[in-house]
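Fold this: phenylalanine 4-monooxygenase
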Amino acid sequence: MAKRTHYIAKTPDHKGLIYYSEEEHAIWRDLYAQQIPSAERYSASPYLAGLDMLSMSDKCIPQCNEITERLMPLTGWSITPVPALIGFARFFKMLSEKTFPAASFIRSRADFDYIEEPDIFHEIFGHTPLLTNPGFAHFTSRIGEIGTRVKPADYSWLIRLYWFTIEFGLTMDAGKYKALGSGLTSSPTELIYSVESAVPERRAFNVIDILRTPYRIDIHQPVYYVIENIDDLFQVADRDLLADIRQAQSLGLFEPRYQCQLTG
């Protein structure tokens, strides 16, 4: 979340509204039209139920306050525009306050099929449907609450639990893999890859293992964790996650299943 971006955040006006160009609305429309058939086939039922409840526009980019008006009566969550990337401290604080930070820009045509960083399509189409569900909403705010209590050196450990569940989690439905995570449901390419490809490893859901699993944001994930029973995820909110982090740190990280990036 501290990575640079070449996108420029859009600033809301005094009413909280953001102006988007016709081309930007067209990108949303085309993304939505492309993604809906795949989402209906590959996404988990809690996500699809939330998408239906929100009734978001398929023609133009929804305003954050529109989504807030629908979410607030369901789970008490609001959506607030933010710059493309924010720091972990602010991210966790916002989640703890049941405020979801939504990057305000939309991807360009050049990044249409795959974008490394979150954009408004990822935030609204990907994340907000799960926030209609009380269990997912509570789990998300719990991650934020724990994040406000850990030391900065522990941020990278805690965020893995969010990454491999809310962002890139899988579940099972009638014996088939289904995408649960928002990074999957909003991705034209990784949604299908995560469910159908024989390349990635799919591991059983385990909190300690997740905390020990490194990841990269700029590739399709080589490892996914499969939450067989959604209640198993909801029960994580009641765990002593600070103790879990300490245990994971004592065991150390797993070897990455990807090549490390070169810097410099």
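Residues 22-42 form the longest helix (21 residues). The mean pLDDT is 95.
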